[in-house]
Amino acid sequence: AQSVAQPEDQVNVAEGNPLTVKCTYSVSGNPYLFWYVQYPNRGLQFLLKYITGDNLVKGSYGFEAEFNKSQTSFHLKKPSALVSDSALYFCAVRPNYGQNFVFGPGTRLSVLP
Amino acid sequence: DGGITQSPKYLFRKEGQNVTLSCEQNLNHDAMYWYRQDPGQGLRLIYYSQIVNDFQKGDIAEGYSVSREKKESFPLTVTSAQKNPTAFYLCASSVQGTGFEQYFGPGTRLTVT
Description:
Strand content of chain A: over 45%
Order of helices and strands of chain A: EEEEEEEEEEEE
Number of helices of chain A: 0
Distance between the termini of chain A: 41 Å
Oligomer: heterodimer
Radius of gyration of chain A: 13 Å
Shape of chain A: globular
Radius of gyration of chain B: 13 Å
Distance between the termini of chain B: 29 Å
Structural class of chain B: mainly beta
Low-confidence stretches of chain A: none
Largest sheet of chain A: 6 strands, mixed
Helix content of chain A: under 10%
Order of helices and strands of chain B: EEEEEEEEEEE
Structural class of chain A: mainly beta
Strand content of chain B: over 45%
Number of helices of chain B: 0
């Protein structure tokens, strides 16, 4: 079965420090990988995606993610966290043969001033 | 939240009543989706539609119904058969094809008492 794991429910970082939000997946084939962010009582906003090519993907608001095929991971990173980055982050996988996304349970990021 | 609108933002209903949630998009996307979001469970797919007049059940379709009479519109009806309808409902759309991200609406929070 296809699945996405985000092993940390909550990540706390100090403003200005680097942040990492972890994602691992279990999907057969070569999936497409996505990160979304959700602010309270809002819809999800697309941050970045990996389709093919360079394993380091750059996205919106200074975020980037590193695809690691051998570890089936797609961790989200940012070199210097901002308080305004505090939100709920979702990793999603889309199998390359199908249409439906599989979402992880989400990780709540808190950036402390 | 892109070019997707959902209305209303908050909806209150009595148990036993059907209720319809609106989703409209002006992105010219063929594919549209409905998700349910509960705390700690990520997003679960209710229904999706890849083309007008066609739709498929997702993972948790029981107690829900949809229609896709126009490309721009994908309303969701929560019927009285849905055992636990109180949740945050998100509509999304995307370009056809597996490499494309979804765009989400702002969501509708439904409370049934």
